């Protein structure tokens, strides 16, 4: 007699609570899951920190000929109140920069304004390689401002729509104007903010523009808008990504970038870049040799120790968007001989899984599954939905789905080393999706460790040379 087949049983799932963020007041109750609500109620995290940020924040300007006043007008807008015209269930009214961040801001003055040549548009149109002509003009402007470095804190760069032909290189040029200028400015220690006519000057929802520009300006000037609350101390988070250097031969050189959240709160972001030759290739993915991985991790540890009076973290969590090869694992452990627990996590974006929230049999909900849904599919493997319905940040407490449409796909967390609960690992990863200070949304899909590592890799490969030093992440935002 043949036994009848048994139905496949999926493991039970859990929904993780939304991570709260800590803001400016000393009161331990100054926490909030909604980033914008937290800023409005308590002010930024570094509000009461001694000499945390300049007051006022002074903005230098690089603009097309005759358009400096347009940027000054935008700075005046930042001090005004604006009501949302989009994402109303989530977006809050913007009451003005000083009321949100408790510091003043404004133009640095005529000595820190640089107007680009009046015939630059024609030069770009005539140039054989328009992107190089535009890049040269912006690089010259930054060199001019370098001599006024004590007069400003952040540089606003206004790009003319007519220059779009120079924003990217040709088919054979691995060039991105944004990344190139960021690389040049970072090398000089100058934080920059690009202004695009469509997204900055003419976008219909001024509240959204002001929140984005306001948070970015405060952060780039050295402030910390928020940090994670209720995370165990003694843990350091590191993210690794790779970028191929442009114009290299078969023995390609890679800029290996580590973006790091140095402490359990998620503050103190900084990164190191390591350039290596002869990395192993599997398909299009590079993997480090044991000694290369040890060098990258050792530099990361040194930066952490400088921030923590020589202390070694009791736990290290390393995120990578490719698997950890055995020799890479050995290199990480070589670098952290005194760390009690090392967790190496492959965060995989393309999972092939989907999740649908069913109200009752054969009837799906109008919104996707809840953000924070997770279930374990192996001893060291879990699915984690970092996108999805998030009622806790909605103005009316009802459903809110940031993406607006589609069926979210979960991340797959594959742990290659470490111990402890996979749910705890998922909880931390979910929390780190709220630490990108370069937008006004409630979360990102990827944790900040990998979000920033990818951004840094793209920028660093444009740098003329790498120096063995750490860089503040704010220079690359």
TrEMBL record:
Gene3D superfamilies, sorted: 3.40.50.2300, Ribonuclease H-like superfamily/Ribonuclease H (3.30.420.10)
InterPro entries: RNaseH-like_sf (IPR012337), RNaseH_sf (IPR036397)
A molecular-function term among this protein's GO annotations: nucleic acid binding
Protein name: Piwi domain-containing protein
């Amino acid at each position: 007699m043949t036994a009848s087949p048994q139905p496949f049983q999926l493991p039970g799932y859990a929904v993780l609570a939304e991570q709260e963020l800590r803001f400016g007041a000393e009161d331990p109750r100054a926490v909030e899951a909604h980033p914008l609500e937290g800023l409005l109620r308590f002010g930024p995290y570094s509000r009461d920190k001694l000499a945390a940020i300049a007051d006022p924040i002074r903005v230098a300007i690089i603009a097309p000929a005759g358009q400096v006043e347009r940027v000054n007008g935008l700075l005046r807008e930042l001090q005004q109140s604006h009501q949302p015209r989009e994402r109303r269930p989530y977006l809050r009214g913007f009451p003005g920069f000083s009321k949100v961040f408790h510091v003043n801001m404004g133009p640095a003055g005529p000595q820190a304004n640089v107007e680009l040549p009046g015939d630059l548009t024609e030069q770009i149109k005539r140039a054989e390689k328009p992107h190089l002509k535009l890049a040269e003009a912006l690089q010259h402007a930054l060199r001019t401002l370098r001599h006024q470095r004590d007069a400003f804190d952040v540089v606003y760069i206004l790009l003319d729509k007519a220059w779009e032909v120079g924003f990217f290189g040709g088919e054979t040029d691995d060039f991105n104007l944004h990344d190139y200028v960021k690389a040049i400015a970072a090398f000089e220690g100058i934080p920059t903010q690009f202004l695009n006519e469509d997204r900055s000057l003419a976008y219909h929802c001024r509240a959204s523009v002001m929140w984005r520009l306001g948070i970015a300006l405060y952060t780039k000037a050295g402030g910390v808008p928020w940090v994670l609350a209720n995370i165990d101390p003694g843990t350091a988070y590191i993210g690794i990504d790779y970028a191929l250097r442009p114009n290299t031969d078969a023995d390609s050189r890679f800029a290996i970038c580590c973006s790091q959240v140095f402490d359990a709160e998620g503050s103190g972001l900084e990164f190191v870049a390591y350039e290596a030759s002869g990395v192993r290739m599997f398909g299009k993915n590079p993997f480090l040799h044991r000694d290369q991985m040890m060098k990258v991790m050792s530099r990361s540890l040194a930066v952490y120790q400088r921030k923590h009076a020589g202390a070694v973290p009791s736990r290290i969590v390393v995120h990578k968007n490719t698997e950890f090869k055995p020799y890479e694992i050995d290199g990480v452990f070589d670098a952290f001989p005194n760390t009690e627990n090392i967790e190496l996590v492959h965060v995989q974006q393309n999972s092939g899984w989907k999740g649908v929230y069913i109200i009752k049999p054969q009837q799906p909900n109008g919104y996707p599954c809840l953000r924070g849904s997770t279930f374990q599919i192996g001893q060291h493997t879990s699915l984690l939905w970092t996108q999805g319905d998030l009622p806790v940040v909605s103005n009316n407490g009802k459903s809110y789905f940031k993406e607006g449409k589609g069926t979210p796909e979960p991340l797959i967390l594959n742990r290659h080393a470490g111990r402890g609960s996979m749910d705890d690992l998922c909880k931390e990863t979910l929390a780190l999706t709220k630490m990108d200070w370069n937008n006004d949304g409630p979360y990102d899909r990827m944790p900040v460790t990998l979000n920033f590592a990818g951004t840094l890799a793209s920028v660093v490969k444009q740098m003329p040379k790498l120096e063995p030093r750490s860089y503040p992440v704010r220079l690359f935002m």
